[in-house]
Amino acid sequence: MCNYIVTVKGVESITRSKDSIRAFRALGQERRFKILDLVSSKAFSVGELEERLGVSQSAVSQQLKILHEAGLVRLRREGKYTLCSINHSLLEEVRNLLNMLLDRRHMFSL
Q1: Domain of 36: which CATH number?
Q2: pTM for the model
Q3: Helices 30-39 & 46-53, crossing angle to 10 degrees?
């Protein structure tokens, strides 16, 4: 496998954004997409996500940990519950990077 370094002007800004790279990696699993879809409308507790997804609390917690570490969700304690909400600012950054790639697709002969 060959590794290529792309030196097209502007692409360097993509590689510099480690938060966005982590976000792209975190989005690579269907259940995490479902969690983001749910929390995009309102904050959910771990228990509510467990019910909606039909999986165990530990499975939800594992996926939330990945999403939280990637910066895609925010977790906050409210009494005995942990509430999860979406981080709109990072998703906006990811969207901007995708738009930049789409706008420059002609540079890569796509």
Answers
A1: 1.10.10.10
A2: 0.74
A3: 120
